[in-house]
Amino acid sequence: MATAAPARNDQRTIFGWAMYDWANSAYITAGSLVFAIYFGETIFPEAGFSIFGRAIGAEAFFGILVGIGAFVLFLAMPILGAVADYSNSKKRLLQVFAYTGAIFAVLTATPGAGDLGLAIVVALIAQVGFVSANVMYEGFLPELTTPETIDRVSAKGFAMGYAGGGIHLVLSLALLFFAEPIGLSEDAAQRIVIVSAGIWWAAFAAFSFSRLRDRGERRGLPSTYRTTPRPIAYARLGMRRIWRTTRQLVGFPQLLLFVVAFLFYNDGVLTVIKITPVFASETLELSTTTIAAVFVVIQLVAFFGALAFGWLAGRVGAKRAILVSIVGWTFVTVGGYFLPVGRAGAFLAIGALAGLVLGGVQALSRSLYGSMIPEDASAEFFGFYSVFSRFSAIFGPLIFAAVDILTGSARLSILFLTAFFLVGGVLLAAVDVDRARASRSKWVLD
Q: The CATH number of the domain where 294 resides is what?
């Protein structure tokens, strides 16, 4: 007999939920950070790469890789949230995607010099696992909370993620710093860090899973799908529901306006996060240990930043708090353009600012969206949210790469990202949150 799901705002369950952020943040911080540097220094050909006769550097190529990954996820995401809601299987799907992502996160350490094909495959599968698991993980948020606690709980999840990722990053930095004295090459130390991130993800995720329970009951498939093989039926059903959600969204202008605003500023955030390690290594000519040390500071500041923005949202509202964060991001991108080569202190200052506003924009965007959607279809709507998150993440890295290729300057690429924050901020300022929340009861659900 299945165990009943705990009541809302149950602290034991919320802690278990937040621990999944602790688990997967090792991959998104140390794992992705060191892989980006390892990609530029070891995997990418020293002589560069050429497409249609135009030379492409490591930064531009990595931007293209990130953009391709986002496009793959955009194609894969639509059915996941809807299937989880319909089959009442968010936890099981979370486990499958998390463990798959963790395994391939470990395998990103296997490509060697020139192994671009292998690097692309394993990195894409790890990222698909990471994002797909997050769809299920975020789908639990409206079920575990009430309207007055959702902002704080969302911020707590991100804070736990920054803490867990930060601790793993400190341990990784220690290994990278002492690699030579203990007889390890820099290449070997980087590989060990990448592998450990995947193991950390899987190990702590197991603890999180022990405290999560699906709510609701499994619903039978509609009669039109009864003769269809179950995987195909769920895929078709999921696509139909996502399409219906998209069509209905047109009739809810405030939520639609938020989604479009999110497309812009989230694109800027994701691109800065993904591109910064290789930008710091290739353009700023900083060492791996220096970059990792700055990211430790970013994680530490982001931990307190997430909690601070959760507090701020309680005072001025989530929307205004996000707008404050977006202003901070514009200073990050403009400051990034002026960063001098080899100056770790300046990079640290910009990194600290990024850490402060990182938690605010991520945690509060998630909770604000969660407060405007119908709870009975939370995974479907968070699947939709992830679809558009992945859709937004396509353009930033590709535009970054295009500006870099056309101008020969990754600095101009960073500066160009400021436009994403300006447009997103203006659109978000126009959103009427109260009207969006009041319209939730008008959604038509199966």
A: 1.20.1250.20
